[in-house]
Each structure stands twice: as C-alpha cells, then as structure tokens.
Amino acid sequence: MINPIERITQNRIIQLFKKELGYTYYGNWEKREHNSNVEEEILKQNLMKRGYSETLADKAVKEVYDMATTNSGNLYHRNKAMYSLLRYGVKARPDLGEQFDTIFPIDWQDFDKNEFGIAEEVTLTKGENNRRPDVVLYINGIAIGVLELKRGTTDISESINQSISNQKVLFNEWFYTTVQLLMAGNNTQGLKYGTIETQSKYYLSWKEDEIDNEGYKLDKYLKKLCNKERILDIIYNGVVFDAGVKKLPRPHQYFALKEAQEFVRKKEGGIIWHTQGSGKSLMMVMLGKWILENVANSRIVILTDRTELDDQIERVFKDVGETDVAKTRSGKELMQFLTSSRPRLVCSLIHKFGNKTETDFDAFIKELQNNPVQTQGEIFVFIDECHRTQSGKLNQVMKAVLHNAVFIGFTGTPLLKEDKKTTMDVFGRYIHTYKFNEAVEDGVVKDLMYEGRSIEQNLTSQTKVDQWFEAKTAGLNDFQKNELKKKWGTMQNVLSSKSRMEKIVADVVGDFSVKPRLRSQNGNAILVASSIYEAAKYYNLFLNTELKNKCAIITSYNPNASDVSLEDTGADNETDKEFIFKTYTDLLKEVSVKGNKSKTETYEADAKESFRKEPARMKLLIVVSKLLTGFDAPPCTYIYIDKRMQDHTLFQAICRVNRLDTDDKDFGYIIDYMELFGNVTDAINVYTSELDSEGFTKEEVGIQLKDRLKIAKDRLFTALETVESICENVASPKNDLAYIHYFCGNTENPEDLKATEYKRMALYKAIVEYIRAYANVKADFIAAEFTDAEIKRFNDKLDEYLNLREIIRIASGETIDLKAYEADMRFLIDTYIKADESEVISPFENISLLDLLETNMDKAIDSLPKEIKGNQEAVAEVIENNVRSKIVEEHLLDPKYFDHMSVLLQELIERRKKETISYRDYLKEMADVIRQVNQGKKDGVPKSLNTKGKVALYHTLDGDENLALVLEEKVQYAKQEGFRENLAKQKLVKKAIFDVLDDVSKVEEIYKIIDAHKDEY
To answer: Which family does it belong to (predicted)?
Structure first.
C-alpha cells in the first residue's frame, strides 16, 4: 500500500519492538487512567527481582517517583537531577542506624536484568490539555523514550514540532522529567532523534551500515538506536548537560567514543579527526568522563590553546558531576598537581608552558630528563588541535615529564605531510575520522559558497617612486639598497594601499545592504586582515561608515608604552607600531575592566559575546589570526579574506561560517580578495579525502618514527660538518677578529667585501641549514639515542654559529633597520597606488564548493583567475569534458532531463568555438549548466516530488505533477520483490504504467526509468 495511514506504520513498529528488540508490550493506554512517567509497580518488581529488599525497593521507588513528579524548578534542572538519580543511584538505608545502600533504578552493567517495555497511545492528563504520545519506551517502568510517528507524506518536522510542544507547561511538561530520548519518524524520511528542549534544527539522524537498504530506514534505525545494550550505553556514556542545554551524541561522536575506548584499554594513544563544527569539545568530555569512571587510578590533563574551550571543558565536567577539577595557571602548577593524587582532572592552556627563555628552557628540559617527575596515577593527556600545538618545545616538555602517559590528540583538520611526522610520533594513528563532506551530508554543518573578488591596483607615478629611492639609498651599500628594494616590492605586492582598503570597506558595507542574511540582520561577518597594522587601518576606515558602532577589532594586542618607546626614528611621521598603539589607546579609552581581565580582554570578550548572540548589534569582527580557530558563532555567515592563507589555517578560517543557525542560513560564504581559489579547493579536497595514514597500525607508526629519526640524525651531522668545513681555514685563534678577517677582509674596503661575499653567502646558508636540522630533531634527542656529550655539542654549536652569523652580518654592513623607511614607504603606497572598484572574478557562482569538487572542477579552475592564466581553450575543454561525463553518468536515471542538459552544453560549446560569446559570459553560462547538472532537476520542481525517481517521472511526463504522483503510487503498489529478474513481475509493473498513461509508446520509456532507480523501486 502506498502511503499507509499512521496506524498501520505504528502497528509495524510495535511488532518490531516486541519481536526484534525484545521489549514487553504493555498495551494501548489511551483509556487507562493515571499514566505516569514512573510506573511504580513495574519499578518495584524489577528492583526486588534484582535482589533489593522490599524496604529498600519501596524507598527507591518513592524517591524516583517524587523526583519525577515534582514541579519545582524548570524542566532542564528537573531532568538533570533525575538523570543524576538514575545514573548514580538512590541512597537509602534499610533501617535507622544502618549503613546507607545505593539502589540503582536501572542496572547499567547488565542490560538483561532490566525490563524494557513499550506502551502506545499513552494519554497524559495532567496539565491543561491532554496529549497522547504514539509510543513510550520504559526501562523498569521509567519513561525514558518517546516516539512520535507520522504517515509518509507528512514531513518529519511535524512529528518533531509535536514533541517540542508536548514539553510545554501548557501540555505535559511534567512527563518529560524522566525522558532521555525523543524520536520522530515516518516511512519516507526515516528517524530523527533529540532530547528534552532540543530545537528542531538540532534533531539528529543516526547513520550506520549505510549499505543496508533492505527495509524502511525508520525500522533500521529504531533497531540500531533502541537495541537494549545500545540505548543504555548512549544514555549512560553519551548524555551531557552543558550550560543549560542537554545534549546527546551524534553518531560520529558515539562511534569515536567506542573506538577510543578500545585504544584506552590497550593503553594506546591516537588522533581523533572530527571536522570543524562537529563537536570536538563534547567528544573530549564524553571520553574523559568514561576514562575517569572506567580506568582505575586515572588522571586526565586537557591542554587547549583557547580560553573559551578551557572554561567550557571545566564547566561541562562539573555539570556531569565531576567536581575534582582544577585549572592550572602555569607549567609549574601543573607539575605540582600531577605529583599529588588530586585533582583527577586538570585543564591547562598550552601557552602556560611557553614562558621560559631559551636558556632556561633547555636547562628545564635537561633537569626534567635527569630527574623524572614522579607523577601519580594513570595519566591521559588530551590535546586540542594537536597538529598545531604539539610541535617543538611543548612536545619536549610533555615527553620529558609524562613519559608514561597516553596521548590523545583532537583535530578538526587532517594531518598534512609536514605535521604528520611529528604529530603521529607523539599520538600514534587515527582513532576515528569524520570529514567535512560527511558533516555537510549529515546536516551537522553548512556547505560553503565561494566568491572571488579582484581589486586592480595601479602605480600612478613610477618617476616619483624612483626619485624617492635615489634620495633615500644614496648612503647605503649594495646589500642595504637591495634589502630596501625587496621590502618595497613586498609591500607593493602584499600590503594594501589605503585606496584598495577603502574599496573593500565599501564592498563590505554594500553587502550589509544587499546580501539576504546580512540585510535581515540575522547574520554577521568576519574580515581577515593580514597584519595587526592592517586590521587597525580597516577598523579606522569602518569608523567612517554605518558600521561605526557595530564592528570590533580582535587581535589580542594590548597597548603598552614600551611598544613604542623605541619607535621614534627622528622623522616627524608615524611608524606601524605607533599607529596600532594609538588606535588601541583610543579604542579602549571608555572600557572598564571586568574581573581580572585586561582592558583588551574585557573589550574582546564583550565583542565576541555580542557577535554570537546579537548579530544586529555586532555585525563585523576584524581579525588577523585570533578567532580563526575554534570560534563558534552560529550567526556568522560571511568571511572576507584579505590575507594569504593555506592548508590548516585557511580551512579553519573558512569553517567559521559553517555553523548551523536559523532556517534562512543555507550556506557559509567565503569572499576572497587574495585569489586563493586554488588554495580553498585544495584545502576542502584534503579535508574530504581518505588519507593514506588512516589505516596505519601501531607498529607501522613506530617504523615510520624510526625511519624519520635516522634521516633527521644524518641531516644534522651533515649540516654540522658543512659549517665546520666552511670555517676550517679561519686562522687561529679563531676569535671574532679572525672570523671577520676571513669572511669580510678589510671591512673599510668595499672591494674586499665584494671579493669575500661568496664566503659569507655560503656561511649564512650552511648555518640556516644547521638551525633547521637541529630544530627538526631537537624534540627527539633522547629517542634518537644521542649521548649527553653529543647533545651538549649540538647545543653549544648552535649558540656559537648564531653569534658568528650576527658578527659577520654586522661587520660586513649586511643589515639594515627598515623601520626608518617604513612610514615613507606607506606614504608612497597610499599616494601613488590607486585601486579600481572590486570585480567578481569567480566563474562558478551559486555552486557550493562540495558540488564543485564533485564535478572535478578544481582541475580546470587551477588555470583560471586573475581571471584566466594559461590556455583558455584547454581550460574550457577540461570543464566541458567533466560536465559531459557527469551527464553521461546520470543519463539513465532521467533521460529527458539529461538530454536537455546535453543540448544546452553542446550549444554553449558551439557558441564558444564560433566566438559568438565572450569567455567571461561563457564561464557564467557554464556555471549555470553545472549547477543544473548537479541539481539533477529543473528549477521550481514541486516539493511533493521529493525523490529522484518522482522527479524523473515528472520530467518525462512534461511537467505534470499529478500524473507523476499517481504513476509513482501505482508502480509502488504493483512492483513485487525481484521484478527486474522476472518477466511476469515486470509485466505487472508495465501494466500499472499503461493503466495510468493509456499510451503503449510511453510504457517502455517509463519502465526504463523505474528500472534505473534501484534504490527506490
């Protein structure tokens, strides 16, 4: 039957719970009076069956019932208190004066000892209005789950909204005090789940064994989610109360938790890669909670590099009842905590380790290695964004101090080649991965849209610039002249002229008037500048626009008089540092400090809070690098990039705009002024693709470490030998003067300096190579099995060669203080470089980045912008071939639509070849063809056609919606299992088609479509 009524679906689901899941069926409770969220008789019987005395059972039942039916406080706090009672048990004593016992209303250890039951049509009479949940799940008589069902043509959102309204005081809020799991389902969309007070946009879909396509998805996922052992595990290990919001794990978090438990049992570390915005901090909490409860004598150290995350983790652990938590204020304090037995959980900010000077630090490491700290307990170290924070010195500290600890790294981005070598050495292999495209597909984050904008800059007077250089460089030697010219070239290419920045400011202000989410004030934006100076400059420009009191600058810069004490160059102009100092001093004038924060911290905390919660009041944040990682602000919809970025940094930055928000947020938008399209598509490609290191075993990671260390050791010895051989011919006693004579000759004689230049260049190059080789292996000196004498020699040589390089550079005049020229060069740029209006240069508007990557467009677009580098003809052919392949691949599913697409593509190709269309217009039209091909249907297809099969029928029947729906219904009714392999069954399907269309010629055409859509028919 097509679209069976809800009652038929409900009957099937009741049978599923009884027969396949083994739940007891209590009956239809529509007419039953006094239905409750705690069925006292069932609970008492179960407690006594589990061996509790009648006295204790009665006391426990009374306490659970009283807690479940109290009306004090709001639903969240009642539910939280109830959860605590269920999870940690009821404390009671059989008689006065006897010891307290703990009675567990639910047996969490042995699921078979609980009674799992269901009742349907449970009429709830308390409250002003009666409601009747379709199915209620009970464990030992305690209502822990509610399922609302709808027929297949009613959107699942109606079931969700019904559940949400049931929790209102007006209806039956009281009943939900005990409820842990809320589910909504129908035959077409499957199952969604949430918990009390979950907003509809945050209801989740379970995802597991995707290749299993046997029955209804509703049935499949009820079996997965409500399996007795699974449902207990999710409630016991997965529920988190976080600052007023109750949360359940998403599937990827639950499966990561299960995988991580196996690693922990084996005392093996690893890496959890869950894409930006998919809930890494909750993952840390769930895993940490499990370790503290299941590993005897365990201690956890959580290291993050963000104050917000540090605060959140401490708060959430306290919310789940883990009160033995401390935050450290220094590395020393962390050591004190770890050498005593308490606290069990320590949170620390990573930069607390970085306050030692180079010399102190080496001595500190050496001391730790010689006198290992006697830490207490089994230590597990969680490190957030592990690829970013686990390099160099911190790595050494952790290895030296916590040599027996298990390290678990959390990252939102995969390990690229350069990170992998060090990060995998510390943490080991991947525990679990959840990639960007999976998160988009699951509706956990939003897909991204890209728009490239170009602002052409032109030099208005080369002569004036040349004259300035002649005047300024008259007294400089060749090296210094070259350095100044290099700096000018860099400034020209990298730094913005005031004119260019004004154009970007005008662009952003304009977008706030025309872009839907910005215009409606539901959304806001981030602008990424390439330096604190430019961020300050942008901020000053926005002060002259309508965003004046609605934007803020977030860079953590704290104005201090010492910043500018050495900046006065004698000229009457302002250096970069003086400009920044003045901007911040003005900005913070009216700020009153809060708590123990500085003025800057107070200002930034207020701005971030407003940006998150009041997008209409805080529309724009100007940032440099702060907030580009881990800053979650659902309203943030646009990111304007005016900074060169790639890899991790770029991906982290663009993910600031992918958080879920109100329904009008369809995508996150990237507006790029730096022509980073190739970098963006590369980054997204990396974060959606399988990595070769995901399948590594522990042993393979170990072998990799050994290989890497051997190469690193060889490189260090070679680099040291090279520097020593260059210095070999320096005359004794090899003091400062001897080195200067050898590498510079007579420093007052320009010819000597010129003649010895090759020696200096060789020396500088060799010293740089030694520094790199040294840094590459320093963290692993112990693992590389160097002797104390060798380590001392490496350290001494590093100091010696760094000093030697400075002496030679200063003696030869190969240094220049560019600060004295900075303000003049800024003036030149602002005066003689003029910017044109911005121009959109991305050819693929309105196509999301994931769709673009699916069409393999990145290969083609590498050759595009400024707009088009390279061979236009070749680029066009690559694009056309990709689109043609996609059309051929999809053709059988919807012949009529893809024939139409094929004609559009061919016409466009012919117009390009005949040159009757400009290349720019060609790209725009091609973008539209790609959009339609990826979309797989015409624009404006009615919503009732909600499957690919229905859409294909609609296209084939010339856009007749009713006919398509009638035909779908008849075919679904007529088809029998295995009809594709059985002629008789095929005839039944074809007869159904003929009965609707009464046209023999159409029957085969429609049948081919039915045959092609194997997942629907």
So the answer is: Belongs to the HsdR family.
Specify whether 215 is located in the same domain as 257.
no
User: Position of tokens 């299960």?
Assistant: 258
Where does the pLDDT of residue 356 fall: very low under 50, low under 70, confident under 90, or very high at 90 and above?
very low
Do the Cβ atoms of 149 and 13 come closer than 8 Å?
yes
Report H helices in 732-787. 736-744, 750-755, 757-778
Are 505 and 606 members of one domain? yes
Question: Where do we find the tokens 């809020």?
Answer: 173
Domain that holds residue 90: 4-236
Beta bridge partners of 186: 190
The answer to whether residue 690 scores a pLDDT higher than 70 is no
Which pLDDT does position 780 carry in this prediction? 66
Q: Which of 935, 966, 994 is the last residue of a domain?
A: 935
pLDDT score of 612: 92
- 420 has pLDDT over 60: no
- What CA–CA distance (Å, rounded) separates 190 from 184? 8
pLDDT in tens, 486-529: 776 666 555 567 888 999 999 999 999 989 899 999 999 999 99
Q: Output the CA torsion 886→889→890→892 (10° steps).
A: 150
**Degrees, nearest 5: CA angle 896-898-900:** 70
Q: Is there a domain that residue 775 lies in?
A: no
pTM over 0.85: no
pLDDT in tens, 978-994: 787 788 888 888 888 88
Query: Mean pLDDT, to the nearest integer, of 440-456?
Result: 84
> Are residue 506 and residue 543 in the same domain, yes or no?
yes
pLDDT of residue 227: 96
> At how many degrees (to 10) do helices 40-49 and 54-69 cross?
140
CA-closest candidate to residue 956, choices 988, 903, 1015, 1001: 1001
Q: Is 873 exposed, middle or buried (0-12, 13-18, 19+ CB in 10 A)?
A: exposed
Q: Which residues of 821-839 are buried (b: 16+ CB within 10 A; e: fewer)?
A: bbbbbbebbbebbebeebe
How many CB atoms neighbour CB 573 within 10 A?
Answer: 12
Between 652 and 507, name the one with better pLDDT: 507
Residue 692's SS3 state is coil
Band of residue 347 on the pLDDT scale cut at 50, 70, 90: confident
Based on the fold, state whether residues 302 and 357 are members of the same structural domain: yes
E strands along 399-536, which residues?
Answer: 406-411, 430-434, 448-454, 457-459, 524-529
Amino acid in the structure at residue 361:
F
Measured between its terminal Cα atoms, the distance across the chain in Å is 14
More confident residue, 746 or 466: 746
Q: How far apart are the C-alpha atoms of 957 and 972, rounded to whole Å? A: 17
CA angle 791-399-370, nearest 5°? 55
For residue 274, the cross-strand partners are: 434
Which string of DSSP letters, residue by residue, matches 883-935?
A: HHHHHHHHGGG-HHHHHHHHHHHHHHHHHHHTT-S-HHHHHHHHHHHHHHHHH
Name the most confidently modeled range: 146-160, 643-657, 716-730.
Answer: 716-730
Q: Taking the CA atoms of 374, 375, 376 and 378 in sequence, report the sign of the dihedral they define.
A: negative
Structure tokens given for 736: 């400062």
User: Taking the CA of residue 246 as centre, how many other CA atoms within 13 Å lie in the half-sphere pointing to its CB?
Assistant: 26
Does residue 847 belong to any structural domain of this protein? no
- pLDDT score of 124 more than 50: yes
